[in-house]
Amino acid sequence: MTRQDAIFEVVSRFKRNEDVLELVTMFGLSAEELLEGGALYEEVKSIEGILDA
């Protein structure tokens, strides 16, 4: 899985209310990457404690 695949998978999991912790921490994804990938601000804000700067 590439970094881009992980971003799209996290966004998809947000839409299905599924856990995203594993992928976010494994790839060290940032809020900016997730927002650019299509995640909603509220979704990203809900996991801000595990995001890389």
Structural class: mainly alpha
Which of globular, elongated, flat, extended, rod-shaped describes the shape? globular
What's the number of helices? 4
Rounded to the nearest angstrom, the radius of gyration is: 9 Å
As for the number of domains, it is 1
What would your notes on this structure say?
- With 53 residues, the protein is mainly alpha-helical.
- The protein has one domain.
- Helix content is 58%, strand content 0%.
- The protein contains four helices and no strands.
- It has helices at residues 3-15, 21-27, 31-36, 41-45.
- The chain is globular.
- The model has no long low-confidence stretch (mean pLDDT 94).
SSE arrangement:
Elements: H1 3-15, H2 21-27, H3 31-36, H4 41-45
List the keywords.
mainly alpha, 4 helices, 0% strand
Short description:
The protein has 4 helices and no strands. The chain has helices at residues 3-15, 21-27, 31-36, 41-45.
